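Running low. Got one?
___
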Amino acid sequence: MDVWLWILVLGVAAWAAHWGADQLLTPLKMLRKQWGLTASAGAAFLAIVTASPEVAVNVTSAARGVSDIGLGNLLGSNIISIPLMVTIAYFASRKRFKNNEKHQKHLDKNILVLNKRSISVLSLPYLGIIALVALLTLPKAWRGLQPVDGWIMLAAYAVFLAHAIIKGRKKGKNVEWDKKQIWLSVAGALAIAVGAFFIVKATENIVSTLNISEIVGGLFITGIMTTAPEIFKTWSVVKGGEVTAGTTSVIADNAVTMTVAFFPLALVTTPIEDFQLFWANLAFVGLMPLLYSLFVHQSKELHGFSRWQIFVFDAAYIVYLLIMVFFVLKLF
């Protein structure tokens, strides 16, 4: 098949996987209301579904013997997602919300407002997860992803989720379950599985045709494609007035990717072939939530991100691309 046809397959498969995730999202949203979870705690809970395309891609890549695609997807999606979603959320929030005078202050001061609780509930625990990944994979004696590492990371996600729920509980509400939505959820699960298979299959063929390594394909093809559909979800949630929920969900998604999506790659034992490429990418995976935490903590009366801080996020990703092109991959 022509490379352009595989690119088309990749795009359709990514859309199908995220459509499936959207169908699974409604039942979990209902559970969130029933259990009385706050926006930050709810984001950690809902991430089980919103990050499911990345998890499914890594399961498929491990099963097909191309775990480097999954490793690249794990790193690449976690680097681009925070600057991309924060930028999208900022522009989506530049509108007036009805009966919300407080939001007018955010507009006047050009701030993307966030609940400061998101630092303790989401971003700091996520930084802890990244530190744990570094500890398990960077030392020479432990280098690579091994089965024991996978079990440790699954336990880390259980702790992350429990911490988020305990820190963010309030009184629950009664909800009514819809049979139609349950069937749509089943269809969604199938769409995720089929979409993930074709994302990996398309990436395999594209990297083969372009003669690039699987991990690079995972970083810049699979990782970007699995993240891109989230743009529409973030835009729609923030534009609907749920600014904190729409912006913080990316942290929860990344936590799932670095733990649950880590597991299948570790289970089949994924070696680190290019150590410089791995540690450089892992460093930027950690830099993004570090900036997130520092900026929110630094903010005073109105917690969140100012315009110049949004620019720093985007500049950090551009610096990452330049380092990859000129110093790590040495394409020029």
Notes: The radius of gyration is 19 Å.
